From TrEMBL:
Pfam families: TetR_C_6, TetR_N. Keywords: DNA-binding, Repressor, Transcription, Transcription regulation. GO terms for molecular function: DNA-binding transcription factor activity; transcription cis-regulatory region binding. This is TetR family transcriptional regulator. Signal peptide: none annotated. It comes from Streptomyces botrytidirepellens.
Length: 283
């Protein structure tokens, strides 16, 4: 059996074989020096978590597959439930991903009700008819934006957390990945805020929301349980601790994102770290 790093490099080579451009073009699309890509493929350097996430995006695969050989592999981050995953379409191409990326960004930055199909079409340089082919109704844009956020979070967590053996350090890194820092994480928070609002008004969204949130909760709970097995966390109910921690993250994240005076990412981080230390870490 190949070592994990060797197997990952082999799967990256498989992604490269399916890429329509050259290896140099792939490196350019990653924003990576081609020499660094070559060194990573030969084992002279390791792929960083950010690089693995970008490779997964370009190759239309998951980070879980790149690292563990299966989309369904049991790993440090809970696998999204089926209703929280995008259904695979026959003949799916990069066009769907381009539309989804554009819709996700526009909804995050402008708000779901302010985004028109024509806006997405303009951002993609295509026609409204093409958007309607992939998303027959505008409501589908929000649904798929949530699925997109769930998959992005899963990929990022697998890439960032899989090599951290100590559960305490892994939980702190997981906390970092929930902070609404400017950029992709802040946009994901914006999507979640809008989904929470729509879900409160539209019961038909609740199954997808529940399944999506369950993945996040389970990741936190299993990390806490592993920390208890390692002897670094107290023996309190991991489910209850996960409920408390996720509720604290949600509340603080909303306050930061909505600009409440005195709330910042730095203060949010400090409060969450203090909670973990006070309520979880074995003294």
């Amino acid at each position: 059996m190949l070592h994990t790093a060797d197997a990952t490099r082999q799967r990256v080579r498989e992604v490269l074989r399916g890429y329509p451009g050259s290896q140099r073009a792939f490196a350019d699309a990653m924003g990576l020096d081609p020499t660094k890509l070559s060194k990573s493929l030969t084992g002279a350097r390791r792929f960083t978590p950010a690089e693995l996430t970008r490779i997964a995006e370009l190759g239309n695969v998951t980070v879980n597959w790149l690292i563990n050989g299966s989309d369904e592999a049991d790993t440090v981050s809970a696998v999204p439930q089926r209703s929280a995953r995008r259904p695979v379409r026959d003949g799916d191409t990069g066009r769907y991903r381009q539309i989804l990326d554009a819709a996700w960004r526009l909804i995050a930055e402008r708000g779901y009700h302010a985004v028109r199909v024509s806006d997405v079409a303009e951002a993609c340089g295509t026609s409204a008819a093409t958007i309607h082919y992939h998303f027959p109704g505008r409501d589908g844009l929000l649904t798929e934006a949530l699925r997109h956020s769930v998959q992005q979070a899963f990929d990022r967590q697998v890439a960032e957390l899989h090599s951290i053996e100590d559960a305490h350090q892994r939980l702190l890194r997981l906390v970092e990945l929930q902070l609404p820092t400017p950029g992709a994480l802040q946009r994901e928070w914006s999507i979640w805020l809008q989904v929470w609002n729509e879900t409160a008004l539209r019961p038909e969204l609740r199954v997808l929301h529940t399944d999506s949130y369950a993945r996040y909760h389970e990741t936190v709970a299993r990390t806490i349980a592993e920390g208890q097995a390692q002897g670094v966390f107290t023996d309190a109910d991991p489910e209850e601790l996960a409920v408390s921690l996720t509720a604290l993250i949600d509340g603080l994240g909303i306050q930061v994102l909505t600009g409440r005076p005195g709330r910042s990412v730095e203060r949010m981080r400090r409060i969450l770290y203090d909670f973990v230390q006070r309520e979880m870490v074995r003294s």
